Amino acid sequence: MFSSTLIAFVFGAAAVLAGPLDLTYPRICGSHPSNTKLVAAERKFDAQMVAPGASPMGGEPTSPKLNVYWHVVSKDDTLEGGNVPESQITEQLEILNKAYDNTGISWNLVNVSRTINEEWFNEASPYSPLQADMKSALRVGGPADFNVYTVGFKTGQAEGLLGYATFPSDVEAELSDDGVVFLFSSVPGGATENFNLGHTLTHEAGHWVGLYHTFQGGCAEPGDRVADTVPEASPASGCPVGRNTCKEAEGVDPIHNFMDYSFDSCLNEFTPGQIERLQAQMRTFRGVQFGETTEEGTAEA
């Protein structure tokens, strides 16, 4: 959707959700900024944007090969209790790297920590102070280090979530809050039907690198602030090929885009505009500098 500028985000995870969860859709992501936050974020990004080739954040650039620190948070030491095995973590990183292959970003697993804490496992969410306790205890690294937390989202306001993320411009004010929290059973081979091919993390990582939902703002401009994603009135569910919720737009809804709510099996792309945007976000707020994009066109998994 059209905009002359890209966008950043200036809110912490505790303020990511703009309202109550909409349980109409099976994929529930907690990363929904309010309009007020978006306006402030655009202004911040416009003021601080780092151009390609410039020295990011006034210092030495960071490689786009990003360190991943995976924090397994479980209620006990069983698979059903959230103790994700190394094999699924390895496969998830393979899926993530395939999805981001044409973006210039690659993901390198550095360490896996394991913590048994039933409260964190059940209740950590953008609404709960427990998520701040969890991250304060476990997070490591700097603004370009990707901290991932797998939990259960079992009770209270956490129930029903698949994941949520912080955004690049959160880092300056709230480094300790930075990262992605997502449902342990949505990893490849997990027990969450239709969302167990690994693209919950692909989606949440998309927010972490600076992307909006494709349906942000509905049919009205500027929407998701990316020119080549077709406007979409509402999230997709399943894989509704040919769906067209914005009749005046050129093209059908971007149901295959990783930033929609479609089933994992339906998702396979980032657009060139999204790639341009995420690189600008990462340069500006996480100090990551990119070489030339690997190839033109859509990045497909």
- Molecular shape: globular
Report strand %: 5-15%
Mean pLDDT: 87
Helical element count? 6
The strand count comes to 7
- CATH architectural name of the domain at 13-20 and 29-213 and 270-285: 3-Layer(aba) Sandwich
Instruction: Report how far the terminal alpha carbons are from each other.
Output: 22 Å
**What is the H/E order?**
HEHEHHEEEHEHE
Can you tell me the CATH superfamily of the domain at 13-20 and 29-213 and 270-285?
Collagenase (Catalytic Domain)
Helix percent reads 10-25%
Looking at CATH, which topology of the domain at 13-20 and 29-213 and 270-285 would you report?
Answer: Collagenase (Catalytic Domain)
| CATH C-level class of the domain at 13-20 and 29-213 and 270-285 | Alpha Beta
Look at the helices and sheets and give the structural class.
alpha/beta
Q: Tell me about the largest β-sheet.
A: 5 strands, mixed
Poorly predicted regions are: 1-23, 293-298
Oligomer: single chain
Radius of gyration: 18 Å
Kindly report the spatial arrangement of strands forming the biggest sheet: 2-1-3-5-4
